[in-house]
Amino acid sequence: MIVFSIHQENPLENLNTAFNVAEQHLDIPRMLDPEDMVNSVKPDERSVMTYVSAYYHAFSGAQQAETAANRICKVLKVNQENERLMEEYERLASDLLEWIKKTTPWLENRTTDNTLPGTQRKLEEFRDYRRKHKPPKLEDKARLENSFNTLQTRLRLSNRPAYLPTEGKMVSDIANAWKGLELAEKGFEEWLLSELQRLERLDHLAQKFRHRCEIHEEWAEGKEDMLQSQDYLKCRLNELKAMKKKHEAFESDLAAHQDRVEQIAAIAQELNVLHYHDVQTVNTRCQLICDQWDRLGTLTAQRRQGLEEAEKILEKIDQLYLDFAKRAAPFNNWLDGAKEDLLDMFIVHSIEEIQDLVEAHEQFKGTLGEADKEFNSIMNLANEVQRLCQQYGLTLRENPYTTVSPSDISNKWGEVKQLVPKRDRTLHDERIKQENNERLRRQFAQKANIVGPWIENQLDGVASIGVAARTSLEEQLNKLRQFEKATDSYRVHMNELERYNEEVQESLIFENRYTHYTMETLRVGWEQLLTAIARNINEVENQILTRDSKGISEEQMNEFRVSFNHFDKNRSRRLEPKEFKACLVSLGYNIRDDRQGDADFQRIMSIVDPNNSGYVTFEAFLDFMTRETADTDTAEQVMQSFKILAGDKPFITAQILRQELPPDQAEYCIQRMAPYTGRDAVPGALDYMSFSTALYGESDL
């Protein structure tokens, strides 16, 4: 627009201003004299018409240039937006693949430091990954797929070739990488929980091993020195006889301890098999006990041989001491075993298991009556010895046949009677714990049995949208938005289940017979639901974009959908090549069953499936069926528009581009146009023909 001021009271000055402006800005020469025009009653009509026609030709050329510039702006704007989407896709794909590459080895690593705290820390790290790190990446993946689909739709609608991402960054590559991530993730949590269970059992076994070693070492303390002593060589005959009987009692005690040593060795072997982290200490201690046990056996045999060689043994044996020793030794062993059982630690995971322990404990309590009788009998023997000594004035000596004293038996029997009610309380507390675990199982199962079917029903509902032929795209999109809103509202139930699952895991509950759903299966179903809704919304929006761009009526859309759904037998929203071929034949396409027909069909497949994905989506099917009706730009049209701006010249200059196009699009063309090398080139000439061809063909733009 050319702006200049006029003065109504001075026509001569106005004419001079108008002629000057026309000459400077429109290249129209001053063919009329302003004074003649003002002073003449009737100016020369032919001169005036000639001058006015010059204005007509000037403005006609300007309007044509403006139209050409608008077309170029439109094409360049579309191309710039497509490039921005390509760059965004490449960036998102690189970031997501890098994250997957970094995360997958961590999930595939099935090793721990073989300690309970270290494994618990690894479980917390995995929970952080599931709650904080993975969900944003899942959203990035969905946004990446949506961006790719939108870009391909825009390229089809603008008559551009399909976008092929950088090698290794295809949607299928990302999907395969994600699948590999999920495969690595699958079972990781169960492995950690089973590892915790194994390590807990290992700690329990290690404590049990140490406890039994302490009991045995306490029992074995001083035994080697006693067996190595040759005191029987300096004793009187009656004392020697007593030593022999005492040695017989010791052999009984030694045989009774054989099972304990074997149990210690068996526990050590199990710790080795289960790879206990401090197995070296366990093996060393076990070896010391076994070596000592072998020495005890050898020394016992040697001492017995020495005593048997002593033929001077008196037949006067105090029968009461002997009876006491024979009955006290096994009863003492029984007391030690009872104490071990009453103090034994246990791990149970169900009410049935604790019930078994309670029943076993009740059976043990049933034997206490007989044990009390045996205790009284043994103590009566000791009391009888004391009574006889007092009656006959004898010196009360230690029992020569055993190291077990009546006070030892009495003290241990008192300890056993005190441990019984403690064991009752421990079992009662454990029963309460298992009942609470049962409540947690029922609580989780009750919620899971509601959430699981809801997710399955939502997945079925999302899959059914679009199958009905008479449903408009807007209605489908509205239904999908409703599903999206309902799913977002339902997220609170998944969070509640996650809290229940944390309580279950913290209570070390590993099985739940009240539901077949696990937190892992529910998470997978939830993620599938979110992905399905987002993918279907994107597909419907692209269908609406295609429909509106090509002016397809709702009735035509329904007809296309009916044909597509008829051959989409498995309702996968895509057609296999055989299904697509049958669909084309049903729509009247003449595809012969020979080599020429196969070639024609392959040509059609290259149009609807440029990325060789092996299937045809509804969007590609719709684009193919309506390809003749689209009003799209071509390389020839863009080339013709540049030619108009260049004044019919085969090249264009940066000055013309900056003059006719907006600044950003002018700079876009200048940076990408190759220099013109024709014979008629001028300095700074640019080749707009190759640039126009590159916009619609394979290029690096």
TrEMBL record:
<keyword id="KW-0175">Coiled coil</keyword>
<dbReference type="Pfam" id="PF00435">
    <property type="entry name" value="Spectrin"/>
</dbReference>
<dbReference type="InterPro" id="IPR002017">
    <property type="entry name" value="Spectrin_repeat"/>
</dbReference>
<dbReference type="Pfam" id="PF08726">
    <property type="entry name" value="EFhand_Ca_insen"/>
</dbReference>
<dbReference type="InterPro" id="IPR036872">
    <property type="entry name" value="CH_dom_sf"/>
</dbReference>
<protein>
    <submittedName>
        <fullName>Actinin alpha</fullName>
    </submittedName>
</protein>
<dbReference type="InterPro" id="IPR001715">
    <property type="entry name" value="CH_dom"/>
</dbReference>
<keyword id="KW-0009">Actin-binding</keyword>
<feature type="coiled-coil region">
    <location>
        <begin position="75"/>
        <end position="102"/>
    </location>
</feature>
<feature type="domain" description="Calponin-homology (CH)">
    <location>
        <begin position="1"/>
        <end position="60"/>
    </location>
</feature>
<dbReference type="InterPro" id="IPR011992">
    <property type="entry name" value="EF-hand-dom_pair"/>
</dbReference>
<dbReference type="Pfam" id="PF13499">
    <property type="entry name" value="EF-hand_7"/>
</dbReference>
<dbReference type="GO" id="GO:0005509">
    <property type="term" value="F:calcium ion binding"/>
</dbReference>
<dbReference type="InterPro" id="IPR002048">
    <property type="entry name" value="EF_hand_dom"/>
</dbReference>
<keyword id="KW-0106">Calcium</keyword>
<dbReference type="InterPro" id="IPR018247">
    <property type="entry name" value="EF_Hand_1_Ca_BS"/>
</dbReference>
<feature type="domain" description="EF-hand">
    <location>
        <begin position="555"/>
        <end position="590"/>
    </location>
</feature>
<dbReference type="InterPro" id="IPR014837">
    <property type="entry name" value="EF-hand_Ca_insen"/>
</dbReference>
<dbReference type="InterPro" id="IPR018159">
    <property type="entry name" value="Spectrin/alpha-actinin"/>
</dbReference>
<keyword id="KW-0677">Repeat</keyword>
<keyword id="KW-0479">Metal-binding</keyword>
<dbReference type="GO" id="GO:0003779">
    <property type="term" value="F:actin binding"/>
</dbReference>
<dbReference type="Pfam" id="PF00307">
    <property type="entry name" value="CH"/>
</dbReference>
<feature type="domain" description="EF-hand">
    <location>
        <begin position="596"/>
        <end position="631"/>
    </location>
</feature>
